[in-house]
Specification:
- The complex is a heterodimer of chains A (118) and B (107).
- By secondary structure, chain A is mainly beta.
- Chain A contains no helices and eleven strands.
- In chain A, strands 2, 4, 5, 6, 9, 10 and 11 form a seven-stranded mixed sheet that branches. In chain A, strands 1-3-8-7 form a four-stranded antiparallel sheet, with no helix packed on it.
- Classes of the chains: A mainly beta (118), B mainly beta (107).
- Chains A and B meet through β5 and β10 of A and β5 and β10 of B.
Chain lengths: 118, 107
C-alpha cells in the first residue's frame, strides 16, 4: 500500500536549518507530486510547498519562499524539505502528502515534529 | 488566496448522533473540496474528495455535499472513533488552503 515515511523528530536552535525527508513506497513515484504542510501546536494546517517529482519543478508559499527548498531524489525515492533561518514560530509538526494530477491530497506522511528553541 | 471558513469550531455530541459541519469558501471552488479527519497525535486522513466522493475504505456514515462556495460534511450515527477534528480543504488553486477545523467532542 501507499506509504510516506518521514524522518524523526528534531530539536534545533533559532537561526539554524533543518532538512526533513519523506520516503515513498507502494506506488509509481513519478506519477504523483509531493506537498509539504505544517501544523503548529494546537493549530490548523498550513500548506508550505509542492514539488513535481517528475521534473523537480516547485511552488512555494509566498511568505516562505526565501527560506524553504524542496528537492527530490528519484532513485531512493525520497523528497526533502529544507527550512532555513528557523524561528520559534516554525515549531510545528511537518507533514508530506501526496497529490495526484488533480491536486487532490490522498495520502499523508506520519509527520515530523520540529522544535525550535534556544 | 482562497480562504476557507468552517463552523462550528467545536461540537459536543453523543454516540449515535448525526452531526453536520459547514465549510465556506471565499470564491467559487466548484467541487474541488476534500474533508480530512485528524485524531489526536495522528496525521490527517482523507475522508471525502470532489466534495462528495468517499475515499476507499471510509464508512458510508460519512457524506459530503455542496458546490461553489458552500459545503457540508455529515456524519450519521456517530461512533466512538469519530470523535476527532475535521478539516475542509480546497484544491482548486494554490496555495492549498484549509478551514480552521471542527473538533467533535463527547458530550
Amino acid at each position: 500500500q501507499v506509504q510516506l515515511v518521514q524522518s524523526a523528530t528534531e530539536v534545533t536552535k533559532p537561526g539554524a536549518s533543518v532538512k526533513v525527508s519523506c520516503k515513498a513506497s507502494g506506488y509509481h513515484f513519478q506519477s504523483y507530486n509531493i506537498n509539504w504542510l505544517r501544523q503548529a501546536p494546537g493549530q490548523g494546517l498550513e500548506w508550505l510547498g509542492w514539488i513535481r517529482v517528475s521534473n523537480g519543478n516547485t511552488k512555494y508559499l509566498e511568505h516562505l519562499q526565501d527560506r524553504i527548498t524542496l528537492t527530490v531524489d528519484p532513485t531512493t525515492p525520497t523528497t526533502y524539505m529544507e527550512l532555513r533561518s528557523l524561528r520559534p514560530d516554525d515549531t510545528a509538526i511537518y507533514f508530506c502528502a501526496r497529490t495526484d494530477y488533480a491536486d487532490y491530497i490522498d495520502s499523508w506522511g506520519q509527520g515530523t515534529l520540529i522544535t525550535v528553541s534556544s | 488566496d482562497i480562504r476557507m471558513t468552517q463552523s462550528p469550531s467545536t461540537l459536543s455530541a453523543s454516540v449515535g448522533d448525526t452531526v453536520t459541519i459547514t465549510c465556506r469558501a471565499t470564491q467559487n471552488i466548484h467541487h474541488w473540496l476534500a474533508w480530512h479527519q485528524q485524531r489526536p497525535g495522528k496525521a490527517p486522513k482523507v475522508l471525502i474528495f470532489k466534495a462528495s466522493k468517499l475515499e476507499t475504505g471510509v464508512p458510508s456514515r460519512f457524506s459530503g455535499s455542496g458546490s461553489g462556495t458552500e459545503f457540508t460534511l455529515t456524519i450519521s450515527s456517530l461512533q466512538p472513533d469519530d470523535f476527532a477534528s475535521y478539516y475542509c480543504q480546497q484544491y482548486t488553486s494554490y496555495p492549498l488552503t484549509f478551514g480552521g477545523g471542527t473538533q467533535i467532542q463527547i458530550k
